[in-house]
Specification:
The longest helix is centred in the middle third of the chain and has 13 residues. This protein has one domain. By secondary structure, it is mainly α. Helices cover 48% and strands 6% of the residues. The chain is built from 3 helices and 2 strands. The mean pLDDT is 95. This is Sulfur relay protein DsrC.
Length: 64
C-alpha cells in the first residue's frame, strides 16, 4: 500500500500537483496495489477534487 504522505516525503523535488500525479502513476507501475489518502497535498495547484484525480491516475495511469 502506498501512503500519499510517504510519496510526498520521499520525493521533496515534487512541487506541483501535476508532478504528484506522475509520481502516483509511477507508484502504481512499480507494483503498489492500493493508494491511501492520509494527507491532503499542499500544493498551489491542488484542485478541489484531488482525491478523484489521484485515484484515477493510480488506477488508469497513462491511459487517462
Amino acid at each position: 500500500m502506498a501512503n500519499l504522505s510517504d510519496l510526498i516525503i520521499q520525493h521533496p523535488e515534487v512541487t506541483t500537483f501535476e508532478d504528484l500525479k506522475k509520481l502516483v502513476v509511477e507508484a502504481a507501475k512499480s507494483g503498489e496495489r492500493f493508494l491511501h489518502f492520509d494527507v491532503k497535498p499542499d500544493y498551489r495547484d491542488t484542485p478541489r477534487n484531488w482525491e478523484i484525480k489521484l485515484e484515477t491516475a493510480f488506477y488508469w495511469g497513462d491511459r487517462v
